[in-house]
Amino acid sequence: MGSAPEGSSKLLGIRFLQYIKGGPISFKTHQAIVLIITFLAYASYHATRKTTSIVKSVLDPQSSSSNGLNFFPSLRSNRLSWKLGDGWSPFNGSDGTSLLGELDVAFLSVYAFGMYFSGHLGDRCNLRIFLTIGMIGTGVFTSLFGVGYWGNIHNFYYYLVIQMIAGLFQSTGWPSVVAVLGKWFGKKKRGLIMGIWNAHTSVGNIAGSLIASAMLGYGWGWSFVVPGLIMTFLGLLVFLILPISPESVGAEEDDDSSFEKSGEEASEPLLRNETPNEEKEKAVGFLEAWRIPGVAPFALCLFFAKLVAYTFLYWLPFYVSHTAIDGKYLSSETAGTLSTLFDVGGVLGGILAGHISDRLDARAITAASFMYCAIPALFFYRSYGHVSLIVNGGLMFITGMFVNGPYALITTAVSADLGTHKSLKGNSRALATVTAIIDGTGSIGAAIGPLLTGYISAKSWSAVFTMLMGSALIAGLFLTRLVVSEVTTKIEESRSNRGTPEGPLQV
């Protein structure tokens, strides 16, 4: 702990809080700071990511008319009387929908592959600096997309390059925040803590939707610039105040502050190496991380889970506005607002999945069960969502709960579990790499889902939902071996706890 004062002096925000308090900050307070700052940081990532889906119908308002569907009367209102009433070239042509789809694919593809490199770098550099650069870069390039409005830019490749660079910066976020969180919290209640914390995904989506929708009346460029500026500000906040590990700020765990005060878990309160020579640890290699038991099945499961989740992220507002609900079509703004119920359900789903997996100590069983439950939820939403707004909203909420529950669990608690697997023998420098492998693989599915939807939806939305139900089934099946292993372990534990009459005689 000899380097603690130096580490603390680098964090001006922590020093300011200590000055305000008039003394040192407790370990619990440090944990609270980590939870809040990382929550806000990743919520801002999703807020900037969500804006494109809201602005799509403004850039390409004629896409519906090409299919004989005129569901965007609000775009012709006086409130949006500026030239965007006819869309924005080059996205308002006959190929506008496909061009917007190409932006999505370019962004998500770079994001997915960048994730692997980001995890590799994250385990080898200062996570606070790394996260700060990623957030500021994302904020700048999100804003530059909106600058195209004032600059009267109509070159498709400008927006394509901007989205690709933004995707690269976005890939720094997830490995960083999970790695930081994993260094501060132990395993006993990690599922519940991370389930609550993972609400940042849905909160970010909701905030992004509401901000982008509110800014449309002033010019679609503001729908990108405002979230971008917010993210840049939060990136500076991360730089000033985020402690990446207890050692970095000399934080000593209080006797009563551990989340691990039951049984043997108390001996392993934090996800950090017990030795003081942390600098001697070597970061785990990419292929070595793939070989950690459980990484491959969960990564492949997340591939299909994110395929479902991101199809909803990018296409749900569009689908809702193109679906007659109680015989009426909603405007793009109303559809965007209604679609936030999917994310609200996702908040509950993430918390439930985390809590249940903690209580059962069974991550695979919980994730697989949620994925299987998502299948009937998707079926009922497609079949009965048109009945009324209340039915649509209710089924959307339930679908979001089952779709986002396992997605949240795998990308948080499961990644942290596997990043500190016993096979690593205490090496704490695998967390970002493992997180990047799992979420990076999932992000490839996230790119493929919206791409396929763009083509399939032109023929049939029922076919899209069939694809989503099949993906949910495959996601659950990838966890079969781990589910069987967990069930076997539970049966053995149950028998051991009951004991047998012959037991004492054999001692």
Automatic annotation (TrEMBL):
GO terms for molecular function: glucose 6-phosphate:phosphate antiporter activity. It is found in: Membrane. It is a multi-pass membrane protein. The keyword Membrane applies. Residues 36-488 form the Major facilitator superfamily (MFS) profile domain. It comes from the Eukaryota. Gene3D superfamilies: MFS general substrate transporter like domains. One of its GO terms (biological process) is phosphate ion homeostasis. InterPro entries: MFS, MFS_dom, MFS_trans_sf, SLC37A1_2, Sugar_P_transporter. The chain crosses the membrane at residues 25-45, 129-150, 156-180, 192-216, 222-242, 295-315, 335-353, 365-384, 390-410, 431-456, 462-484. PANTHER family: GLYCEROL-3-PHOSPHATE TRANSPORTER 1-RELATED, MAJOR FACILITATOR SUPERFAMILY TRANSPORTER 16, ISOFORM B. Belongs to the major facilitator superfamily. Organophosphate:Pi antiporter (OPA) (TC 2.A.1.4) family. This is Vacuolar phosphate efflux transporter 1. It comes from Astragalus sinicus (Chinese milk vetch).
